[in-house]
Amino acid sequence: MDARRAAILDAIGIDRFVARRGAAGAESAPDPGVAEASSPAPARRRPIRAPAVAMPAVATPAATTVADDVATLDWAQLEGRVAACTRCSLAATRTQTVFGTGDRRARWLLVGEAPGADEDRQGEPFVGRAGQLLNSMLRAAGFERGEVYIANVLKCRPPANRDPGPEEARCCLPYLHRQIALVNPDLVLCLGRIAAQNLLGVDTPLGQLRGRVHRLAPLGTPVVVSYHPAYLLRSPSEKRKSWADLRLALETARGQRA
Ligand code: URA
């Protein structure tokens, strides 16, 4: 492990992980240094993957009753549609929509819950304290923030940072599904219960969603679930588990490319 990596892990308060050189098999956790060595990810255009042959149940995007053409929009059209959105009542209280940020050809796509006050003001996801921690964790995994794509389930801030309502999520999810389809990442990382439950269309507790790889229709894109950075700020003792989630994500994404 190089000095920079060690310093980052110390800074975010999680144990340093040193891979066993030459260790093989599932027991050997991936060496984040390898991921770093291959970053920044080279510009690429992957062919659309066929779904893996043997995979667990594929989560189908939650049904939406909003009849629309979101699934056919290109980036510019989608961004415009989100900016003008009035599908739910959050349009009345937002300062601006928060579309998403990062590399639109990224290998990893991160999904958060909804903009908070800072994001509502600045128009970018994860720019507050939780965002600082997220950036540190990404660096520990070998990525700079700009090398991944970051979006939220909701594009508008719920007043007083309350949880997204089911109707708000239902209205907004088609935008996230289209972002995922356009990026076509190797891996989706859900940050927190709200992101995971809405994207996977389940109400399973977070603890049961972590630690395994889910698949998202239509392409069988792998989804790994971890804690929300804001939760980790309140419960730093859980950072160790979030590092285990990141290692699972690294391992899974690497498998996609093999
Ligand atoms: N929390 C989220 O889930 N998303 C943000 O963009 C900021 C905080």
Notes on the protein architecture:
It is a single chain. α1 runs antiparallel to α5. This protein has a single domain, classed as 3-Layer(aba) Sandwich (Uracil-DNA Glycosylase, subunit E), CATH 3.40.470.10. The protein has ten helices and seven strands. Residues 17-45, 47-55 and 63-67 have low confidence and may be disordered. Helices cover 38% and strands 10% of the residues. It has helices at 3-12, 32-37, 75-83, 117-122, 129-140, 166-183, 193-200, 206-209, 229-234, 239-257; strands at residues 58-59, 101-102, 108-112, 149-152, 187-191, 214-216, 221-226. A seven-stranded mixed sheet has the order 1-6-7-5-3-4-2, sandwiched between helices. It binds uracil (URA).
Question: What is the name of the CATH class?
Answer: Alpha Beta
Hetero compounds: uracil
The succession of helices and strands, N to C, reads HHEHEEHHEHEHHEEHH
Per CATH, what is the topology? Answer: Uracil-DNA Glycosylase, subunit E
Number of strands: 7
Shape: globular
Which parts are unreliable, with pLDDT below 50 for 5 consecutive residues or more?
A: 17-45, 47-55, 63-67
Give the number of domains: 1
CATH homologous superfamily name? Uracil-DNA glycosylase-like domain
Number of helices: 10
User: Which class best fits the helix and strand makeup?
Assistant: alpha/beta
Report the C-alpha radius of gyration, rounded. 18 Å
Distance between the termini: 24 Å
Secondary-structure blueprint of this entry?
Blueprint: H1 3-12, H2 32-37, E1 58-59, H3 75-83, E2 101-102, E3 108-112, H4 117-122, H5 129-140, E4 149-152, H6 166-183, E5 187-191, H7 193-200, H8 206-209, E6 214-216, E7 221-226, H9 229-234, H10 239-257
Helix pairs in contact: 1-5
Bound molecules: uracil.
Uracil binds at residues 112-116, 119, 125-126, 130, 152, 230.
